[in-house]
């Protein structure tokens, strides 16, 4: 078990070093050249320089100082999770704009400026592959921490490793949730903060307006993607489900929301209403 732990830690350090080098190479061979040419560098790379600085100057040196001590590595990850969350949420929220900017520069095929940068850098992979590395790195941390948990016991810091893995999984969830926010167009600032994303799915949504027991009007059923956050329910129109793009339609604050999951004769339907208002919303699931 000791040898396995040491191998995992060795892999963690070697891949972290390579990750830092890859980010530096992208910044030097693409970002800096695009800055000189005044070609959308800030949009394409977002805060990648901040991510590089954090890993190069803080996380990687801290991990090196841990040696082969699993508990120290766990505490290092636990201490940096808030920084990871802030940096990677900002990076991922910029990804749709980055992809659009890459396309506007002619994509990555010859003879675009990005292809020229790739050729001069001697990279086998195009820029888009390198821009995915930050998200891939977060996933890699999760896998390696799981391996350390499985190969450790209480004496070797298993409790600290469990805590670090739990914190890192929360980081990944929050980062993924932030991607859903980006893909909702027209989202008003008034619904912030949304809180954590609890669940989301597609429903047939019908709205009614009631005055006491009398229905004043009823809208036809419409297909909507519903996002349940801690503080709000967002009702959105699917624009492109393949790319997970949505158009914001309206929101319901969870603090003043009523719900009934018992609708007579309808086992796939729930009803929502806002206390003090006459609107009633019926959500019918596919199954």
UniProtKB/TrEMBL annotation:
InterPro entries: DBL_dom_sf (IPR035899), DH_dom (IPR000219), GDS_CDC24_CS (IPR001331), PH-like_dom_sf (IPR011993), RhoGEF_Guanine_NuclExch_SF (IPR051336), SOS1_NGEF_PH (IPR055251). Coiled coil: none annotated. Gene3D superfamilies: Dbl homology (DH) domain, Pleckstrin-homology domain (PH domain)/Phosphotyrosine-binding domain (PTB). GO terms for cellular component: cytoplasm. Keywords: Guanine-nucleotide releasing factor. It comes from the Eukaryota. GO terms for molecular function: guanyl-nucleotide exchange factor activity. The keyword Repeat does not apply. This is MCF2. GO terms for biological process: intracellular signal transduction. CDD domains: RhoGEF (cd00160). Pfam families: RhoGEF, SOS1_NGEF_PH.
């Amino acid at each position: 078990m000791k040898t396995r732990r040491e191998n995992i830690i060795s892999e963690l350090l070697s891949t972290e070093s390579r990750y830092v080098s890859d980010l530096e190479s992208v910044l030097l061979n693409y970002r800096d050249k695009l800055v000189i040419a005044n070609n959308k560098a800030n949009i394409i790379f977002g805060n990648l320089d901040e991510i590089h600085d954090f890993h190069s100057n803080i996380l990687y040196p801290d991990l090196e100082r841990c040696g082969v001590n699993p508990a120290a590595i766990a505490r290092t990850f636990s201490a940096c999770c808030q920084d990871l969350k802030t940096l990677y949420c900002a990076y991922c929220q910029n990804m749709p704009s980055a992809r659009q900017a890459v396309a506007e520069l002619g994509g990555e095929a010859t003879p675009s400026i990005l292809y020229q940068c790739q050729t001069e850098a001697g990279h086998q992979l195009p820029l888009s592959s390198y821009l995915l590395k930050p998200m891939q790195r977060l996933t890699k941390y999760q896998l390696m921490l799981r391996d350390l948990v499985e190969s450790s016991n209480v004496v070797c810091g298993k409790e600290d490793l469990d805590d670090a893995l739990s914190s890192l999984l929360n980081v990944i969830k929050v980062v993924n949730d932030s991607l859903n926010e980006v893909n909702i167009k027209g989202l008003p600032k008034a619904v912030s903060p949304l809180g954590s994303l609890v669940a989301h799915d597609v429903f047939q949504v019908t709205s009614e307006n009631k005055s006491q027991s009398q229905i004043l009007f009823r809208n036809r059923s419409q297909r909507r993607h519903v996002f349940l956050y801690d503080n709000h329910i967002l009702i959105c129109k699917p624009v492109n489900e393949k790319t997970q793009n949505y158009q914001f339609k309206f929101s319901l604050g969870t603090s003043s929301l009523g719900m009934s999951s018992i609708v007579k004769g309808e086992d796939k339907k729930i009803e929502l209403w806002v206390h003090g208002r006459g609107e009633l919303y019926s959500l019918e699931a596919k199954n």
